[in-house]
Amino acid sequence: MSTAMECSFRIGLNRTSLTTWPGKLNTMGWQRQLSQGRSTNEALRASEAGNGRAIPLPEPSAMTSTSTDSNSQHLIGGAQSLGIGILHHEVLIPSPLGFNGMQYRLGELFSGPGGMSLGAMMAEFDDGTEVHKIVHQWASDYDKDSCQTYTRNICPDSPDSVYHCDVRDLDISSLAPIDILAFGFPCNDFSIVGETKGMDGKFGMLYQYGVKVLEEHNPMAFVAENVSGIKGANGGKAWQKITTDLEKAGEGYDLYVHHYYFEHYGVPQMRHRYIIVGVRKDLKLKFEHPEPTTKENPPTCFDAIHNPEIPKNASHHEIRELQSQVQERLSFIKPGDNAWSEDIPERLRLNVKGARLSNIYRRMHPDLPAYTITGSGGGGTHGYHWSENRSLTNREKARVQTFPDDYEFVGGVTSVRKQIGMAVPPKGARIIFSALLEAFARMNREL
Asked: What is the dihedral of CA 58, 64, 66, 67, to 10 degrees?
């Protein structure tokens, strides 16, 4: 085996259980296979992720192990029968990415167009000995265009690993083993843009499917994302219920909650979200949310769109012409101001009773981070240029959301707007997953 094409994985053993490291097998699934009367080799093969491909089953070879744990002897013997070399529990297997390091398999529910996964796959941590990275395992979303966008950009060579279905119809037990679960569960019922029905809404209980994945697959960690309004939904009871369920899921998780102002982390947008990082309790691992990097000098909307300039041939960069009355109304709105500006003549003012949402016809300010990019809403909610009388193009919105210019979205204008607005900014996700990889690296050194 060529050293340049090997990936090092460690199997940490304790007195009572196996800690499963990425690229290897799902311990619970492996033990379940053994309990069903299968041989060690059959169990290894059935439990191995293998990126969705069956692993050839070679003839068994002699089992050697210095451990007194019978389960670990089965594991090491089976690993040797798969042609994997072991030295002091050091397992070397070919790396599909061609680097020396640790790979952690990612599964994602409610994946949207792939903002969270892109950030995860961009993340890495080099501990001086090996590089820790995250690789795609599977994803699921109910929206067809989002699934096609995800597949095109994240996993073009494994389209069957993206499941287009309602999460309520997803066969969670049949999903391939993962080391990390990501899920930005639908925020419609917790967002100020929605009707804030909380747990009583159509989408409020969908977080439970993330809990079901944790129950079934017991990944090492998870990263969950939702809007700021989630903490106050149902008088705070929704938040208490969600966090309690996540903490008790599977083998139990330690929760690390942080309210992120993403403009403080290099994202040119005032996007504020709760991030819950859960780490399996038996790993005895402490996670630390990263410190802000741009709190004093957040990136601006102008820089996001113009530094560098968007290529002229970039997709989804068509300017949508507005009605003449809307253009005239915008002409009286200053950068950073909205439809309720006193500068707007009476004849152009909106006749709205009740709450006046601040995002209605609000212009971006070139010297500030962009206001939150949204994926839904009617007239006046599209995000407007600071000097031109128009809404931002979808490609400009993608820039604000930190998607690269070559990220190809599938679907029409409205569908792409929704995908971009509902996504997690990849740059923000990368920072969080990099911190998680650093925590894993610390645990690796302690083994």
From this structure: 50
Distance of CA 247 to the CA centre of its chain: 19
Tokens matching residue 243? 């966090």
User: Could you tell me which residues are beta bridge partners of residue 276?
Assistant: 224, 257
Q: Which amino acid is at 25?
A: L
Q: Do 22 and 143 belong to one domain? A: no
Residue 276 domain flag: yes
| Residue 388 is assigned to a structural domain of this protein | no
Helix, coil or strand: residue 314 = coil
Work out the average pLDDT over 170-184.
Answer: 97
d(CA 399, CA 412): 18
193, 196, 1: which is closest to 86 by C-alpha? 1
Residue 355 has a pLDDT of: 72
| Catalytic residue chosen out of the listed positions 7, 155, 187, 301 | 187
**Is the same domain home to 267 and 162?**
yes
H/E stretch holding 101: strand 101-109
Task: Examine the residue annotation and report whether 165 is marked as an active-site residue of this protein.
Answer: no
402 SS3 class: coil
To the question of pTM greater than 0.85 for the whole model, the response is no
C-beta of residue 276 within 8 angstroms of C-beta of residue 257? yes
